[in-house]
């Protein structure tokens, strides 16, 4: 996964992380998934979903974003917009 944020210095990266956090939460709750349920379906730790949704990472692997998007039935890029 990513490292814990101590302060994202790159403005563009910070914007992507904020978008990812917001969009992941919105799509997960829209579909009625719990963090634990989504994490299980995407075969990752619940803490990964929690940390992404709460902006506690500064870098997320594309494979992680893709796995989450697949379970949410959306394009991975839509999580970053």
Short synopsis of the structure:
The chain has 81 residues and is mainly alpha-helical.
Any chance you could write out the topology, listing elements then pairs?
Blueprint: H1 11-30, H2 35-41, H3 46-53, H4 62-72
Helix pairs in contact: 2-3
Structure description:
There is one protein chain. This protein has helices at 11-30, 35-41, 46-53, 62-72. It has 81 residues and is mostly helical. It contains four helices and no strands. It is globular.
List keywords for this structure.
57% helix, globular, 4 helices, mainly alpha, 81 residues, single chain
Give the fraction of residues assigned to helices: 55-70%
Taking all Cα atoms into account, the compactness measure Rg is 12 Å
Strand content: under 5%
Which term fits the overall shape? globular
